């Protein structure tokens, strides 16, 4: 059963000032089965964030439709981890995560348990401003997970972190996902990161974005981004589809 | 917070120095027009125990509180609405500019003339003086609200009350505190004027009486009582509130 079906005929942005309208996405179709970890890879500025904003219904002005499986009639539960952590600086770590809980199940302990799972239990009452960038991102991850979303969207969440921190967080994300299974759509422009995480990688063209290649990653987990297997796979892909992946090879 | 010990000592020395200067000047002048600190202190005690200083101070405090609440509430709502909606902003911006530049005295006279010599008119006149500045500050705040955080609230499907209390309003607290602080400073002063013009009690009214008798000791006694109350409110109410609402910023 598909957890997510996306069919975007066109998404256009009105031009700034009196410039011409820009088409960000055109003819973008794909579906993600339940429980799959899918990565979206595309060159910078190709419309990846726009895609996530459409799926999360932050952006409703587009032609086409998005279907997310969930409790019928009810709005589906979505977790969204943004590029920047976007924590509320006036709330403690605990309250930031509790923000993700819907009112009825806002029982004690849920947020705390998840934070403990992520080794954040000693900063429960700290303000986000006191945390390192990596810790802030873990809090953002916890906030997205705490509501047990049917669909988890991540928009280059580890972008501005140093390599070892990003690698640790990728490991934690996979652990969380294995313990709390959900469908994941992870956007990145880093092919190595995608191969390291995903069951399946969808490659987007430069804008207007559409899917140019749908690739299943068959490597066993855990995968090391520096390993020969990932390196090898990455090179093979780039060699096989040089023109399709031109925008990605550079980064 | 908290000052260093030497800092406190310096402040104390400064205060003593001021009193000393005043005492010397007073005894040199030897006139009822420049009473010494002791004379003023004695007068203050007499006004509290035998006069009705506390009653007048209470009336003034009541008018300050009422006009402060009215000004902050109306000003905040106007400012937030104008900051959120460009068309409303365009429509009423001129009114704000006009309001900012209306002399306080004119507003007071008009309120008394149109509404009668009542407390309601006095409170309304003071509030009306303050509303435009509150609105302008809150409009700045509403414009600076972080869209990214509002998106988080939307994705988390927060209900409107949690969205307001956890995501939206905390961003406005610094602006709210800034206008509360400036607002209070202005309102303290305006209330005395509005009392002087058209009320028959309150610190402003009493000052006018003392003025007519050239009773400077009385003027100064009331002044110091007034300053003490202003500082007390600042210490007991404004600062703790500020720490509570915007403490996360440091």
Describe this structure as you would to a colleague.
The complex is a heterodimer of chains A (251) and B (250). Chain A has 251 residues and is an alpha/beta fold. Helix content of chain A is 30%, strand content 24%. Chain A contains eight helices and nine strands. Chain A is globular. Chain B has ten helices and no strands. The longest helix of chain B has 39 residues. Chain B is globular. Classes of the chains: A alpha/beta (251), B mainly alpha (250). Chains A and B meet through loops of A and helix 7 and helix 8 of B.
User: Roughly what is the average pLDDT of chain A, rounded to an integer?
Assistant: 88
The number of helical elements of chain A comes to 8
Proportion of beta-strand residues of chain B? under 5%
Termini separation of chain A comes to 35 Å
Poorly predicted residue ranges of chain A:
none
| Total number of strands of chain B | 0
N→C terminal distance of chain B: 11 Å
How much of the polypeptide of chain A forms β-strand, as a percent range?
Answer: 15-25%
Q: How many beta-strand segments of chain A?
A: 9
Chain pair sharing the greatest interface: A-B, 21 and 17 residues
């Amino acid at each position: 059963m598909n957890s997510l079906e996306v069919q975007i005929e066109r998404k256009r942005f009105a031009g700034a000032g009196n410039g011409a309208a820009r088409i960000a996405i055109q003819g973008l179709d794909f579906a993600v089965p339940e429980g799959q970890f899918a990565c979206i890879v595309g060159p910078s500025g190709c419309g990846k964030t726009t895609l996530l904003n459409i799926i999360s219904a932050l952006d409703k002005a587009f032609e086409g439709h998005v279907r997310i499986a969930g409790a019928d009639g009810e709005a589906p539960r979505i977790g969204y981890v943004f590029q920047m952590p976007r924590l509320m600086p006036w709330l403690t770590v605990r309250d930031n995560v509790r923000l993700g809980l819907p009112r009825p199940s806002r029982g004690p302990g849920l947020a705390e348990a998840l934070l403990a799972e992520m080794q954040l239990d000693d900063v429960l009452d700290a303000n986000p401003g006191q945390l390192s960038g990596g810790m802030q991102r873990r809090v953002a991850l916890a906030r997205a997970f705490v509501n047990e979303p049917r669909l988890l969207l991540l928009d280059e969440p580890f972008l501005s972190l140093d390599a070892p921190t990003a690698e640790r967080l990728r490991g934690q994300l996979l652990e969380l996902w294995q313990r709390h299974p959900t469908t994941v759509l992870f956007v990145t422009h880093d092919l190595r990161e995608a191969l390291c995480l995903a069951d399946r990688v969808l490659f987007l063209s430069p804008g207007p974005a559409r899917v140019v290649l749908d690739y299943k990653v068959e490597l066993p987990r855990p995968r090391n981004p520096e390993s020969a297997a990932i390196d090898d796979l990455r090179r093979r892909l780039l060699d096989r589809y040089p023109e399709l992946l031109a925008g990605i090879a550079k980064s | 917070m908290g000052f260093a010990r030497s800092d406190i000592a310096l402040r104390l020395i400064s205060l003593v120095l001021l009193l000393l200067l005043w005492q010397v000047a007073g005894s040199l002048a030897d006139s009822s027009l420049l009473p010494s600190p002791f004379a003023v202190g004695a007068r203050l005690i007499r006004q509290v125990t035998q006069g009705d200083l506390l009653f007048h101070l209470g009336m003034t405090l009541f008018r300050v509180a009422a006009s402060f609440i009215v000004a902050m509430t109306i000003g905040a709502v106007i400012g937030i609405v104008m900051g959120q909606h460009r068309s409303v902003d365009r429509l009423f911006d001129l009114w704000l500019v006009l309001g900012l530049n209306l002399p306080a005295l004119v507003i007071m006279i008009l309120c008394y003339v149109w509404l009668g010599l009542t407390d309601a008119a006095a409170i309304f006149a003071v509030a009306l003086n303050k509303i435009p500045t509150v609105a302008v500050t809150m409009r700045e705040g509403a414009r600076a609200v972080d869209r990214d955080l509002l998106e988080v609230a939307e994705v988390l499907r927060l209900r409107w009350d949690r969205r307001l209390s956890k995501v939206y309003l905390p961003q406005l607290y610094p602006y709210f505190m800034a206008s509360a602080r400036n607002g209070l400073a202005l309102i303290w002063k305006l209330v005395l004027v509005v009392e002087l013009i058209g009320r028959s009690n309150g610190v402003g009214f009493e000052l006018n009486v003392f003025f007519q008798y050239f009773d400077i000791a009385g003027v100064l006694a009331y002044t110091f009582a007034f300053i003490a109350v202003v500082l007390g409110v600042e210490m007991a109410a404004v600062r703790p509130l500020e720490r509570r609402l915007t403490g996360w910023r440091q």
